[in-house]
Design goal:
The complex is a heterodimer of chains A (317) and B (298).
Chain A lengths: L2 E12 L2 E13 L4 E5 L6 H7 L7 E10 L2 E2 L5 H4 L7 E4 L13 H11 L4 H14 L16 H12 L6 E5 L7 H16 L5 E6 L2 H7 L2 E6 L2 E7 H6 L4 H8 L50 E4 L2 E3 L7
Parallel strand pairs in A: 3-8, 3-9, 6-7, 7-8
Antiparallel strand pairs in A: 1-2, 1-4, 4-5, 9-10, 10-12, 11-12
Chain B lengths: L2 E14 L5 E14 L3 E6 L5 H8 L7 E6 L2 E2 L5 H10 E4 L15 H10 L5 H14 L4 H4 L9 H14 L4 E5 L7 H16 L3 E6 L2 H7 L2 E6 L2 E7 H6 L4 H9 L7 H10 L12 E6 L2 E5 L2
Parallel strand pairs in B: 3-8, 3-9, 6-7, 7-8
Antiparallel strand pairs in B: 1-2, 1-4, 4-5, 9-10, 10-12, 11-12
Helix pairs in contact in B: 4-6
Classes of the chains: A alpha/beta (317), B alpha/beta (298).
């Protein structure tokens, strides 16, 4: 198992109390697995992804255990994590396009970054150029400033850079969201290619767009209001989801071929609960058509069949 | 159905670079019309000029050439009072609902501004009844959205408030520019269905989007735009069901489907023996089927 997360809790500190963005999350990512992490805005998916790499000032580690290739990741210790970041676990951040230092030529920026990890630029330069060419960029981009590249080019540069030291796990946060459909497809395919080439072993792909996950991910984990709702193979989540939230979410997606005049789709009424003092029990309860009195108790995230886990009382184990 | 908006051979050229030394043609010779009670989708990638066309129709930027008519009258000629009357009938709602509001004021101030500008004589009780009716039309609960600041409302609520604002006018034509791109999947479909309801009330809607599945879901007719040029247009089911232009096909092959993987879609297009047209600089839109136009070389 590449990544094993056990009952992870990460809250945001605010003056009004803790916002429980990641509230008791348990899952694993196998070697070579591309796991999609899906959910709506504010469900905690990016917080979960970020917390595995980089806890920002307002984020507070509350409890739980994260293991990468069997060894514990000290995610609560900013300094100690430096040993793991970039070399073992790496991230392509949301808005990767603004992640490059605008005052440095790209080559120099990469050299500085490598130096901070004790790697000499000349050692990896050939591989770097080879990988840039693989994603359709010329080695000359190393002599350019970020402003001279288009959004898609910057995106690809950051992807090559993040995976340069062959990390075990790559967290890709909404990397296709700001792109046009054709560029989106190219970037999504690149992710799969990176795994095939062995640049990264496993991946967590965070996105709000489930249809893109069906194209690239092996498994999909659906989050709702800071907790896990369902995890299963991409095929299961898209075509035979069990959790009521996943089912409503999937059925609300307009697809090419579905038309308003012929088949009117419906959204999910209501809004997610606030994560500052969230209600007890199942957090989807208020919007759920299947809710019963039992839902006042938090449903366990349990396996219903091999490789398929659901957090819902109404789904038979 | 009567024609509401007629766009004829419209072009927009921007001056770019130092001192406007270079020219950029954002929209070139685009023609189409929007009838009452229909949704026309304008689909294109970033830089295709789709938003520019919406802005031209709403007179938010001047035309470089061509004419735009609203119910037969030339929009470019409107001045002063006539222009204000135009906005009584034609309105736009744009991508980012959060930047459409002033965060310092409560969100329902947009209604008050509208009242001051267009209905200064309306009585308070009458006005609030109209506001309630408009909110109901967009499925908003007045008690949940009135007297709130923009940050207290969700993106979907803010976006629907803007549509409600437009409905308070005697609106006949709406430009909906990427209005659901920023919304979550579970709420975006409701806003999309709202456009469908408005269409049934007789509104003409220009739905601008980069998302093909959304355009396909809601529109009656579709225009596919590339670098300011219409490459394919016609009835939505023909454009999507039988795409002829290579660009339309590549777009459709790039859409992430939920029932087929990209490899399957590509194989399907490669196997299908359909006459693919060739585009060129001097190309023109040619009718390949009734109400289905494709740009082909002369």
């Amino acid at each position: 198992m590449s990544l094993a997360v056990d009952d992870l809790k990460v809250y945001y500190r605010t003056i009004r109390g803790d916002v429980r963005a990641v509230d008791g999350v348990t899952f694993g990512v196998e070697d070579g697995e591309i796991m999609g992490l899906a959910g709506e805005s504010g469900c905690g998916k990016s917080s979960l992804g970020n917390s595995l790499v980089y806890l920002t000032g307002r984020m507070k580690y509350v409890g739980g255990d994260v293991r990468l290739d069997g060894a514990q990741l000290p995610i609560w210790d900013f300094e100690a994590m430096n040993r793991h970041r970039f070399t073992q676990i790496s991230v392509v951040p949301q808005y990767a396009m603004s992640a490059l230092n605008p005052t440095r030529r790209i080559g120099r920026m990469i050299a500085e970054l490598l130096a901070s990890r004790g790697v000499r630029f000349s050692e990896v330069e050939d591989e770097l150029v080879r990988r840039l060419e693989l994603v359709g960029l010329d080695g000359d981009v190393l002599r350019l400033y970020p402003i001279e590249l288009s959004g898609g080019m910057k995106q690809r540069t950051v992807m090559v850079l993040s995976t340069l030291l062959n990390p075990s796990l790559l967290i890709a946060d909404e990397i296709t969201s700001a792109l046009d459909v054709s560029t989106q497809k190219a970037v999504a395919r690149m992710l799969v290619n990176f795994r095939e080439h062995g640049f990264v072993k496993s991946m967590v792909v965070i996105t709000h767009d489930i249809s893109i996950l069906y194209q690239v991910a092996d498994s999909i984990l659906v989050m709702y209001a800071g907790q896990l709702a369902e995890k299963g193979s991409a095929e299961t989540i898209i075509h035979a989801p069990s959790h009521p939230y996943t089912r409503l979410l999937i059925s609300s997606l307009p697809e090419v071929g579905v038309r308003y005049d012929e088949k009117k789709l419906a959204g999910i009424p209501g809004t997610p609960p606030p994560l500052l003092r969230p209600p007890e029990g199942c957090r989807f309860r208020d919007r759920c058509p299947l809710a019963t009195a039992r839902c006042a108790e938090r449903p366990p995230f349990r396996q219903v069949e091999p490789g398929h886990s659901v957090a819902c009382w109404e789904v038979a184990a | 159905m009567s024609t509401l908006v007629e766009v004829a051979d419209c072009s927009k050229v921007y001056r770019v670079g130092a001192f406007g030394s270079r020219r950029l043609t954002a929209v070139r010779d685009v023609s189409f019309d929007v009838r009452a009670g229909e949704v026309v989708a304008l689909i294109g990638e970033s830089g295709s000029g789709k938003s520019t066309i919406g802005r031209l129709i709403l007179r938010l930027s001047p035309l470089s050439s061509g004419t735009i008519r609203f119910k037969g009258g030339d929009v470019a000629q409107l001045r002063g009072k006539a222009l204000r009357e135009y906005y009584r009938h034609a309105q736009g709602v744009f991508q980012d609902p959060f930047s459409s509001y002033n965060p310092v004021y409560k969100a329902d101030r947009v209604f008050k501004l509208l009242k001051d500008a267009y209905f200064p004589a309306a009585r308070r009780a009458e006005w609030s009844a109209r506001v309630d009716a408009a909110l109901e039309a967009v499925s908003l609960d007045a008690s949940q959205v009135l007297h709130k600041f923009p940050h207290q409302l969700s993106g979907g609520q803010l976006q629907r408030l803007l549509v409600a604002r437009a409905l308070l006018l005697d609106i006949e034509f709406l430009v909906a520019d990427e209005i659901i791109s920023m919304l979550d999947a579970s709420t975006r479909i409701d806003v999309l269905n709202l456009l469908g309801d408005l269409k049934q009330r007789g509104l003409g809607i220009l739905f601008i989007t980069h998302d093909l599945s959304l355009g396909n879901y809601i529109s009656d007719r579709t225009l596919i735009l590339r670098r300011g040029v219409v490459v394919e247009s016609g009835l939505t089911r023909k454009v999507f069901g039988d795409p002829r232009h290579p660009y339309t096909r590549s777009l459709l092959a790039s859409v992430p489907h939920l029932d087929r993987r990209w490899e399957d879609v590509e194989a399907e297009y490669a196997a299908a023996d359909v006459a693919v047209v060739v585009d060129a600089e001097d190309a023109r839109l040619v009718e390949v089927d009734s109400e289905h136009l494709v740009r082909v070389a002369a």
